[in-house]
Amino acid sequence: MFWRLVLVALGGALGAVARYTVSFLFGRAWPAFPWGTLVVNVVGSFLLGLLMGATASGRFLLDPAWRSFLGIGILGAFTTFSTLSYETVEAVRGGSPMHALGMVLANLVLGLLFCWIGLFLGER
């Protein structure tokens, strides 16, 4: 149990750094919309679906501790639905409810779609 916690913590550190880097780069390139949040949520949803599909189907054998490192640690820290929530509330408070609705719908629909695609590809 201890080593699994260590792996999750290390994965979390890596995922958080990756999330910050992606958000920073996209934020500099397109500051009018939180594209970084959308990208990490869609990519993270796809990768988690791929990981879970590949390991649950038996197509890819992975020790449960390493699955926790990747799924809970790296991808758990990489995706940012708490950030999405904050950015949505701030858009509403800033007088842009349609912008907020667009952010929520894009993240939810694309996140679910890419998770499904990842599961589909991981199981094959």
What does this structure look like?
One of its GO terms (biological process) is cellular detoxification of fluoride. It is found in: Cell membrane. It is a single chain. The protein has 124 residues and is mostly helical. It has one domain. It has five helices and no strands. Helix 4 runs antiparallel to helix 5. The longest helix is centred in the N-terminal third of the chain and has 28 residues. The mean pLDDT is 92.
Write down the overall geometry. Answer: globular
Fraction of residues in helix: over 70%
**Topology as a string of helices (H) and strands (E):** HHHHH
Tally of contiguous helical segments: 5
Structural class: mainly alpha
Keywords, please?
124 residues, mainly alpha
Question: What's this model, at a glance?
Answer:
With about 120 residues, the chain is mainly alpha-helical. The protein has one domain (about 1-124).
